[in-house]
Amino acid sequence: MHALAILFAGFSIFTALPTGAALWRGSSGSAHLAGTGLLFSLAGLQLFNFLYLQYHSPLLYSPAYRILLFSVAPCFYLYSRPLLLGKEEPGARALLHFLPPAVAAFLPFHLALPLSFLIGAAYLGWLARKLYALREQRPYFRRELLLLGGIFGIALVVTLLGMVLPGQHEPLFFSLYTIAIGLAFLLLSLALALVPGLSAKVKEAAQETYAHTTLENVDCESLLQKLDALMSGQQLYRQADLNLAELASRLDLSRHQLSELINTRLGMGFSRYLREQRVQEARRLLLDKPSLPVLSVGLEAGFSSQSAFYDAFREITGMTPGKYRELHRKPPAH
């Protein structure tokens, strides 16, 4: 148990920066600051936990540890809110969330620990309600919700342990707490690796969940036919800079209308739809033009870079473009 806790502490500290870089791609504004605060707080807690478990350091009982402990929940909330609701917390109200961290330094340790987890439980309740509200979008990104649900489950277990164990079995609790934070880092890293643009996808699904319909007086079937003609006939997906606004203007729709049309009728977000169109074209090119370099295939299909091409192709087909070409190579004509 002790060795595993030390391993996860090191893993968390050294993966905090790359994990943060991946998270920040799908956030902006105050969410950037909240995400930075969240990862800094978790990595800081892991450093203090490591020093306590490995060297019995008294820094665990310092005011700095209590401030970090109380900062995790509000930072997570302020990072998640724009993703799950599509809007940020107003500035003055956002500051109220940092009242507990501000007074944490003055609380005795034996009270601060269970109180921080009790406050965390309240934030977890909010997160549970918002994740439940996304249940209708589950068929479109089941894997993503499972990973997020796993992180939520770890946080719930830690919260329960934090309100029961510390006073009775302190070393055991901090070993388990360190492992749990490490597991959350591992799951998050896995989610970001398997699902590029995870933050953007969750935000897109949330906006669709809470939005009112914009398609009441729209002939959806006719528009879907026009959309298919633009993609199959004119191959608009080959434009690397094609965006939602430009495609919507081609269909005489607003951005919100086209987004809702693709979400509700095709079961995916715009970015996923565009990636699927480009990957479909790339699959054709890989087999029809066997001498064309893989990078050229991606650029011709509409991808702006090799990394974007490889990420999308692997996400949709489960293999690299080179492996796909190798497995589906046409036999030479005799």
UniProtKB/TrEMBL annotation:
It holds the Pfam family HTH_18. The chain crosses the membrane at residues 31-52, 59-79, 99-124, 145-166, 172-195. The keyword Transmembrane applies. InterPro entries: Homeodomain-like_sf (IPR009057), HTH_AraC (IPR018060), HTH_AraC-typ_CS (IPR018062), Tscrpt_reg_AraC-type_HTH (IPR020449). The keyword Cytoplasm does not apply. Coiled coil: none annotated. Residues 221-327 form the HTH araC/xylS-type domain. Keywords: DNA-binding, Membrane, Transcription, Transcription regulation, Transmembrane, Transmembrane helix. One of its GO terms (molecular function) is DNA-binding transcription factor activity. This is AraC family transcriptional regulator.
